[in-house]
Give the backbone structure.
Amino acid sequence: MTRTDQETRLRNYFENNDYYASFDILNSIQDGYDEVIAFSGCIVKAAVLPFTIGLTYYDLITLLGDYIGVISIYNTVTNRWMMPTGERKLDKLRPDWETCYGTPELFYPVNHRFMAIYRKSSAAYGNFYIYYIASAPTLSAGDSIQIPTDYVNTLEDYCITDLQEQAQEFSKALVRFTSYQENLAQLQRWAKSMRQPDRLPNLRG
Amino acid sequence: MSTIWTDAFLEQLATDAEEDIQQAVTCIYHRFYLPVVAGTSVYTLDPLVRGIKRITWRGRKLDPCSWEDLQILTPHTAVVDNANRVETSQSRPFWYALHPTNIHDIRLYPTPNETFDAVTGDPFSPTPNEAQCTISCWRNIDITNPLYSLPTYIDRRTRKAYILWKAFEKEGKGQNLTASKYYAQKYKFLIGQFNSINQSPYVSKRYSLDDGTLSTLEARRYPKPMLPPNFERIIY
């Protein structure tokens, strides 16, 4: 489905479809797309980044722009996956882990922006592949919306809620908002755990 | 048509929104060097610091302790200000605690025996044995600096929901409690979603999958003596 298709669907929903200007509808679609993608994690990407000499804390929003959350990291020099860990484990490993030079083996996501690695390189080292959840791009008319077609109602619910808010129809908006929350929860569930029902139940996150 | 809400009122709500969001989600990570003077153990942190995450001295972590623990550690030292203090032990600090002279004060113990300028270096790229005291913390939002702002995918809509929640609640013309309730619900939903992103739910899988490298460290315990089965049993 493209942005134009979504706009047509919204115009079909509203009886007097001249009530909302195209500008309002398109803004709503973009806003909804940004939110649904950020909250559901529907867009995953991979990128190649260099290990920076001496850097422990990587600012991934600055480096990648559309970064939301990390999935995995692969060290291309050792040809090994780097393992996720937490600050407490690193503290137990070494009280001065932030300053250690050596082969990068572990990574620790600090918050929505920073990720620390253990250990860091002291000289030009190489690259790592990073797999991450990305935020939504800005849509043009013919761009396809990267939400599975059976969950497209989520975005539509958002847009209708938003447009009804603008018309100060808060009771109607609340009904749609409830529907939006339910559909979003289903989309999140699908994106995180329902795509591979074949896997072992004890590995479910 | 007259204005329902003035710009000044909406700006005030925008600031309130920022404060409310940072209370609800601890999300802005910051690192900085603390200027340290030899012989001084109490330092006042910037009020922008919301919570201390970690303090390192020459790259090594200082252990956090409570004020009560610090009193037990240092029964012979006390600080009120520069003129009134009893400080005897000076060395490399190993502990820190919040200090009851100011809500933003911390005290390092033992009292530092070195002076660090906090000018050179990059706190995000610490070097081994670097002559710095580094503080990792959660700090307040600052929209003038992108590094300390909320990410774009959450910022505007969350702020908007908060502002409209409070604006529709305002006494007088334009009050609409249905709308206010609606935006309150929306705001809480957005905060909840951002909380789960900020806590990296994708990585939380590590607890069930285990990383295979550190689990033995986690399970390590100090040795405990095994007493014989007849210990303290008297057989007449």
Notes: Residues 170-194 of chain A form the longest helix (25 residues). The two ends of chain A are 30 Å apart (CA to CA). Helices of chain A lie at 3-13, 22-40, 60-64, 87-93, 152-166, 170-194.
